[in-house]
Amino acid sequence: MCPTVIRPIVTYASETWVLKENIIQKLLVFQRKILIGIFGPTKENQIWRIKNKEELDKLIKQENIVNCIKVQRLSWFGHVQRMHETRVAKKIFK
């Protein structure tokens, strides 16, 4: 669950991306920076600290941006499978 305003912009046309390890890491780092900015620091014993990865994962219920992209890709695959045989996307797929 990347923020609903930012996620569509970041994942635009992600159905066609090749998800290599370096791209996955860049997306996760970007998401973490955005989440830190949104949720802000935590105050413990009169000391402010930045939330760690586990705390951020718990806040977003572990729905990271890479999983969202994978769901979008599966959705697009289903859409292409249901297309009529004369559609260009279906012809390219086959």
Q: Report the radius of gyration as a whole number of Å.
A: 18 Å
Mean pLDDT: 86
Q: Would you tell me the structural class of the helices and strands? A: mainly alpha
SSE arrangement, N to C: HHEEHHH
Unreliable stretches: none
Largest sheet: 2 strands, antiparallel
Q: Helicity level, as a percent range?
A: 55-70%
Q: Enumerate how many helices there are, as a single number.
A: 5
> How is the largest sheet built, in terms of strand order?
1-2
Provide the β-strand percentage band.
5-15%
**How many domains make up the 3D coordinates?**
1
- Amino-to-carboxy terminus distance: 33 Å
Per the principal axes of the C-alpha atoms, what is the gross shape?
elongated
| Secondary structure tally: strands | 2
Please give a structural write-up.
This protein is mainly alpha-helical. It has one domain. It has helices at residues 7-10, 21-39, 53-59, 65-82, 88-93, and strands at 42-44, 47-49. It has a two-stranded antiparallel ribbon with strand order 1-2. A hairpin with a 2-residue loop joins strand 1 (42-44) and strand 2 (47-49). The two termini are 33 Å apart.
